[in-house]
Structure formats: structure tokens, C-alpha cells
Design a protein that fits this description.
By secondary structure, the protein is of the alpha/beta class. It has one domain (4-190): Maf protein (Alpha-Beta Complex), CATH 3.90.950.10. The chain contains seven helices and seven strands. The longest helix is centred in the last third of the chain and has 14 residues, at 177-190. The chain is elongated and about 55 Å long.
């Protein structure tokens, strides 16, 4: 029987979603190198990283635990846009996304003692054409650095930049809440 949910993520947005879903959980996160094979494309990258994030738990997971990992990437013009490491990277990413549509892909992994399962969702997000001053003002807030693609849809910049979303909004924030809730309930029923 699953009695303990462990969220293996330091993301404040994912923690907030778990609280909103009403699950009792605790956060336990270990550093994981987020490198991936260059041959992977789109959702393959997010799926690979969600599974990779379970590795620190493989030897320590108990029968009564469910570990949930997640990874969100921005996929645009055949390229994976992760978290920008500096001002130049953030600027280049936002300039690239300006006036175009990109995919936000989140993979969520579910690890029990018996097995690993994973789901993923893809949302398409269209940006308006951004001005130089809009990009520079956003970078000055320091907000782009902990977000895939260099932006958060939930912050003031994201609300102004995004003109259209196809798919799950919460997926773009970092967790496809409805699909995740359904999967957790399914796993809890089985155990």
C-alpha cells in the first residue's frame, strides 16, 4: 500500500500544484546531472530526464512510497531550450521565441518499488513579437534563470508575451495537473 508521496522537485510551482491537488507529500530532491544524449529530440529529452531523476531513489525506495519526478523543456525549431545560465543566453532564447510558436513538453515519472511509469504532455505556446526593451526589462528582473525557455507563463512577462496556448496551461507552468492527478489516483488504487 502506498502511504507516502515524495515529490523529487525543488520547483515552487510544482509544490504549489501538489498542495492544490490535496495530496499529502514531502519534497526530497537530489542533484542530478541534466545532460542527455544529443540524439534525443523533443519529448524524448523530457522523458529521459524524468527517468534520470529517479536514479537517486532506486536503491532507497520503500514498498509504501511513490516518488514523482518531472522535467519541462521548451522545444523550438528542432532545439531544446533549457534554463538560461546568463543574460546573453536568456536574451537569445527570448529573441528566438519572439513572434513564433514553440512547444512546452513536461514529462512526469512515477516510481514505485515495483515499477517506473511515465507520462508526458505537449502544449503549443505562441509569443507576440517582443521589443528589445521588453526582453531587457524582463531579464533585469532575474526571473528567466530558473525557467525552461527563459520565461514563466505565470509571471507578468509571460502573461503579456503569450498570445495563444493549445493544450494544458499547468503543463506550461511545469506540471500537467489533471493528467498527473489521474495517474497518481490510478497508482494508489492499484497498491
Amino acid at each position: 500500500m502506498i502511504e507516502e508521496l515524495i515529490l523529487a522537485s525543488g520547483s515552487p510551482r510544482r509544490k504549489a500544484f501538489f498542495k492544490e491537488m490535496g495530496f499529502d507529500f514531502r519534497v526530497e530532491k537530489y542533484p542530478v546531472d541534466e545532460d542527455y544524449p544529443a540524439s534525443l529530440k523533443g519529448e524524448e529529452i523530457a522523458l529521459y530526464l524524468a527517468e534520470k531523476k529517479t536514479q537517486p531513489f532506486l536503491k532507497r525506495i520503500q514498498d509504501n512510497q511513490l516518488v514523482i519526478t518531472a522535467d519541462t523543456i521548451v522545444w523550438h525549431k528542432g532545439q531544446c531550450l533549457g534554463k538560461p545560465e546568463n543574460k546573453n543566453e536568456a536574451y537569445a532564447m527570448l529573441k528566438q521565441l519572439s513572434g513564433t510558436t514553440h512547444e512546452v513538453i513536461t514529462a512526469v515519472g512515477f516510481l514505485t518499488k515495483a515499477q517506473f511509469e511515465v507520462l508526458h504532455k505537449v502544449s503549443k505556446v505562441r509569443f507576440k513579437t517582443l521589443t528589445e526593451s521588453e526582453i531587457e526589462a524582463y531579464i533585469a528582473t532575474q526571473q528567466p534563470y530558473d525557467k525552461a525557455g527563459g520565461y514563466g507563463i505565470q509571471d507578468a512577462f509571460g502573461k503579456a508575451a503569450v498570445v495563444n496556448i493549445q493544450g494544458s496551461y499547468t503543463n506550461v507552468v511545469g506540471l500537467p495537473v489533471e493528467a498527473c492527478r489521474k495517474k497518481i489516483n490510478e497508482i494508489l488504487k492499484r497498491h
